[in-house]
Amino acid sequence: MHLHILGICGTFMGSLALLARDLGHQVSGSDANVYPPMSTQLEAQGIQLMEGYDPAHLQPQPDLVIIGNAMSRGNPAVEYVLDKGIPYTSGPQWLADHVLQDRWVLAVAGTHGKTTTSSLLAWLLEDAGMAPGFLIGGIPQNFGISARLGDTPFFVVEADEYDSAFFDKRSKFVHYRPRTAILNNLEFDHADIFEDLAAIERQFHHLVRTIPASGLIIHPRQDAALQRVIGKGCWTPVQTTGEGGNWQARLLAEDGSRFEVWLDGQLQGIAEWQQTGAHSVANALCALAAARHVGVTPEQGIAALAGFASPKRRMEKIADTGGVTLYDDFAHHPTAIATTLAGLRASIGDQRLLAIIEPRSNTMRLGSHMAALPGSVEHASEVIWYQPPGLDWSLDSVVRDSPVPAQVMTDIDAIVEKVAAEAQPGTRVVIMSNGGFGGIHQKLKQALEHRHG
What we know:
This protein has 15 helices and 23 strands. The chain is α/β, with parallel strands linked by helices. It has three domains: 2-90, 3-Layer(aba) Sandwich (Rossmann fold), CATH 3.40.50.720; 102-305, Mur-like, catalytic domain (UDP-N-acetylmuramoyl-L-alanine:D-glutamate ligase, 3-Layer(aba) Sandwich), CATH 3.40.1190; 316-452, Alpha-Beta Complex (Protein-Tyrosine Phosphatase, Chain A). It has a seven-stranded mixed β-sheet, with helices on both faces. Strands 18-19-23-20-21-22 form a six-stranded mixed β-sheet, with helices on both faces. It has a five-stranded parallel β-sheet with strand order 3-2-1-4-5, sandwiched between helices. Strand 16 (258-263) and strand 17 form a beta hairpin. Residues 313-435 form the Mur ligase C-terminal domain.
């Protein structure tokens, strides 16, 4: 069968393409924004990519078109599909029908940490010899690929609350019907489709309704929004993490790189790994709990943490030149920015930490998190805010209220020149964006190598 995917370079749709190809389908796709790591992964896997949404891409006519949730009415390819009566479906629906049927699905949902926790959970199962399938909205470095079918009953899926398609406004995750579900945290996000936090809580409640009584729900005990979700009705056993929860951690290193794991008051072991930050420890507890539900003992899971490597674009070290370390991070929400910077600060002490941030997500563009942005960077030494074209509000107020030195810049090359000139040995530079950011990562890496290499 020939499948054509509209929006194929999105992290979810690109992963779907790999699964479809592994099932034996001919796969092609179109996208307006083709950039790494997904574009390079698809090209490496031999999947045909076409730039833009020209209806000619749909000739000869595919057997089925999978339409990404970034597509809307008026898109020329979408209109062509509808006019010609070409069969179509959403990505989550296709995944549910063709991959997740008869699998033990382990779903990772939440506002933050889904990609890292999904990658971690897949790794815990892999290390235990359980060879899971997975679909992750990023590229886990332990696997080097964002999705695979796997040949065991277990399948780990990053379960996003974003809508499924222009014709299906339900959250993606209601299609997945997990047996094991991690609800990592819950805050307001996706202001382009959700009016308020209560609207998102309603979607999470719909997810809870799909989890069987023989399953397991795992969530941090202190998360008030998730407490409200569970309070709406829950028919599944629940385990909690964090303060007052079933699963708890006691830090043995301030940066979270070494900690004890406790389950119901019993010490399970001491974890040592390469990750840092309280958010990373919280992710680990949830993953350990989920892995235990399918048979990975806490002792096995704790030992496996040492071999875990973060997914690409999650505090990924992309250069270390002349003592200047450059990181790429996907953070695009004030909480994610804050926890990422706090984790790095705990690791590096008082050394210089420069954050370069592009407020690119739909929620950021709407200004919904504007008031929370200044406080999110308190652990940085200095911040450069990039004002991208099309941002409808000024970042000047964020700079004015910043607790650390900050400035707004509108030219990527100027940012590269400034940072390369001012960075000294010992400086950490973190680029934060959920997009390609005009190629700044490679530009800055090259500039640092030229000046400091």
